[in-house]
Each structure stands twice: as C-alpha cells, then as structure tokens.
Amino acid sequence: MIKFHPSKALLQAHASGSLSPSMAIAVSAHCEMCPQCKKALDECAAAEGKALIGAEEAEVTEAVNAEFGDMLSNILSDSIDPITVTRATPDTHIDVAGERYKLPTALRRYKEIDWSTMGAISRARLPLDEGKTRASLLHIGLNGSVPSHTHKGYELTLLLSGSFTDENGTYAPGDFIMLSGEDHHTPVSKDGCLCYTVSNAPLHFTSGVSKLLNTIGRVIY
C-alpha cells in the first residue's frame, strides 16, 4: 500500500508542464503506480485545460472559426486510403544484478544506461542535463543497505519495485519519499529493491569510516 505521495503543488506543477525533467519523470511514474494521485493529476490537468481554453476563446473571432470550419470540411471530403501501422512492442523490463524489474512508462527510454556497482549498491545515472541535480536508477541488492546518512540538499526516492526499511518505517512500490538536509536515515533492503532517485547534492554519511563512506556517497549521487 502506497503511503507517501507527491504534494498537491507538485501535481499542479506537473499538470502545467513546469517541472524539471527529472522531477516530471518521478511524478509521472508515481501516478502510473498510484490511482489516487493519477485521479488528482487528471483533475489538475482538466483545470489547466479549462483555463487555457478560456483564454484562447477570448481571442478567437467568428471569422477564424468560419475559416477553420471550411478547412475541416475540405479535409473530411478528401478521399484517404487507409494505412496499416505496425508497432513494435517495447521491452518494459530492465535487468540489474541478476534481477528483472518492470519499469514505469516514463523510465523505459532509459533502459540502455551504464551501471556503476559498489558492494550491494548499483547506480545508473540518467542522461539529463540539469546542473547539480542528478537523476538515477538505484538498486540495492539482497540484504543490502546504504549506511546512515543525511542530505546536503534534497533527495527524492521513488520506490519502483521491492521494499526497504529505515528509521521511519517500511516502504512499498510507489512510495514517493522526499527528504531534506534535516533528515537522516539508513535504508536496508532484505529482498532487494529498485528505486528512482533525484538529488541535488551528495549524501553525507554519519557513521563508520567517513572518508570511505562519503566516497560511496559521491558514487550514489
């Protein structure tokens, strides 16, 4: 059961097309997994559409409408031969560390990306040009964990498959977890999991040999 969702402000920004690509992917993927947020996003999009149509209607004259009607009639009166389109079925899965996971639609274009692995943690960065903001697919292997850490900026984690736990509880596929520099946690995955992450600064580890761990933080970021 999904317990963590994007804010209404994020849904409204996504409906208006004002989110960055990395965050738009996160919201879109979450809404594909969450009927509750899909419905809320559709309502936001409908409101955006009504506002846009209202603004456009105020500028449209009867002459333009008449011209469009004539053009549409001409198009419909033309004889058009039917065209058969064959579409290839896209592969919706990705293989990571011997496991196969199904990807949401918004992430399927990024199947062929390079993975970096350190221990039980594997990371593949998406080729998005957003300055310091990094978007990645993050895999935690069987009984794997990310050491206790804080965030120098923000970190969004969208759990795509599997589960993990931290000090705040257990997360299920679809959970949209937004953390700031005031938060710290220690994610542990008993059965392994795949996540989509967005962050604008490296993780800062708070336990163990800090220099070694913060090197891992830069790999994950």
Structure report:
Helices cover 33% and strands 27% of the residues. It contains five helices and 15 strands. The protein has a six-stranded antiparallel β-sheet with strand order 3-4-5-14-8-11, sandwiched between helices. A three-stranded antiparallel β-sheet has the order 12-7-15. Strands 1-2 form a two-stranded antiparallel sheet. Strand 1 (93-96) and strand 2 (99-102) form a beta hairpin. The two termini are 28 Å apart. The model is unreliable at 60-64 (pLDDT under 50).
Protein traits:
5 helices; globular; six-stranded antiparallel sheet; alpha+beta
SSE inventory with pairings:
Layout: H1 8-16, H2 21-33, H3 35-57, H4 62-77, E1 93-96, E2 99-102, E3 116-118, E4 121-125, E5 134-140, E6 144-145, E7 149-151, E8 155-162, E9 164-166, E10 169-171, E11 176-179, E12 184-185, E13 188-189, E14 193-199, E15 203-205, H5 210-220
Antiparallel strand pairs: 1-2, 3-4, 4-5, 5-14, 6-13, 7-12, 7-15, 8-11, 8-14, 9-10
Helix pairs in contact: 1-3, 2-3
Spatial order of strands in the largest sheet: 3-4-5-14-8-11
Low-confidence stretches: 60-64
> From the alpha-carbon coordinates, what is the Rg to the nearest angstrom?
22 Å
Distance between the termini: 28 Å
The proportion of residues in beta strands is 25-35%
Summed over residues and divided by their number, the pLDDT gives a mean of: 83
Q: Which bin fits the share of residues in helices?
A: 25-40%
Order of helices and strands: HHHHEEEEEEEEEEEEEEEH
Helical segment count = 5
Shape type = globular
What does the main sheet amount to?
A: 6 strands, antiparallel
How many extended strands? 15
Q: What would you call the structural class?
A: alpha+beta
